[in-house]
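Homework-ish question, so no full write-ups if that breaks the rules, but can someone show me the predicted structure for this set?
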Amino acid sequence: MSQIESILKNSTLSVTTGRKRILEIFLSSNNALAHQDIESQCADEYDRVTIYRTLQTFLEKGIIHNIPSTDNITRYALCNEACIVSGHHHDNHVHFKCDSCGKTVCLDEVTIPKVQLPKGYTMKEINMVVNGVCKTCR
Amino acid sequence: MSQIESILKNSTLSVTTGRKRILEIFLSSNNALAHQDIESQCADEYDRVTIYRTLQTFLEKGIIHNIPSTDNITRYALCNEACIVSGHHHDNHVHFKCDSCGKTVCLDEVTIPKVQLPKGYTMKEINMVVNGVCKTCR
DNA sequence: ATGATTTTGCAACAAAGTTGCATTCCCTGT
DNA sequence: ACAGGGAATGCAACTTTGTTGCAAAATCAT
Ligand SMILES: [Mn+2]
Ligand SMILES: [Mn+2]
Ligand SMILES: [Zn+2]
Ligand SMILES: [Zn+2]
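A: Not a homework solution, just the prediction itself:
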């Protein structure tokens, strides 16, 4: 059984060609992908709606996580391990978006530092996104 | 001269009723606002396109900053001081989005902690967004 | 292999964002 | 106070993005 198939099986998802293709696109990319990025790679093979639904499914199953940004475009990246605990992701790495090449990457080795919230606030998820210039663009 | 007018004047913007109205909406709100939030408060007075253009102008002038989120909705909040330096904002406070009431707020008193990027990466802006339950919803 | 269940494609729709252009408004100088 | 030039606005048309219902197709357990 291939890596791709076991990812799907482990998440109790049926193995369909569409899901395998989208997973393959993620695995062969070294940066985060927006819906549009995926669509432009397989719009001839799969319907737009299928891509939306597949991304949604992957999110819920903890196969991918989404990365916030100020440009109104949510990007997605593979989760390293099973990272769904009681309904929400617990990724704890920093994300970086390059102002020059536009690419967004997971900085898996950079952990989000702790932060003290004011009294009364409960923390479920935390996201940190850094903008700047990446190492290939400088 | 009113507070609202001086904000516009200080940013070398002409004082129009639309800009004053949108500023007023921000000033009277205690949470961050999405385009849609503003539109629903003044759609009868001003065109959708004007709101888009006004938010864009305010952003560029450093009157408001935008807050990233994973739900594909950018929200905006007033900047505390002039926070535009060489073309980019330098807000350094944490943002909080409540999963219960959906409101996003600036935690002005919580400073984003420093983080060490890998070699070769240059930091321009940094954003931190925490999800959870706010003090009024718990 | 068969049938129940899930996934997909299609169509239709709704919402969000963009652009060009004519009109209106604001500001400056007189 | 007024006129003229430049900036902002409204409107229309359009593109892009996201959603929903339903019938056809694919997947999976038996
Ligand atoms: Mn990541
Ligand atoms: Mn803020
Ligand atoms: Zn780059
Ligand atoms: Zn709340």
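Now go work out the reasoning yourself. Hint: The radius of gyration of chain B is 16 Å.
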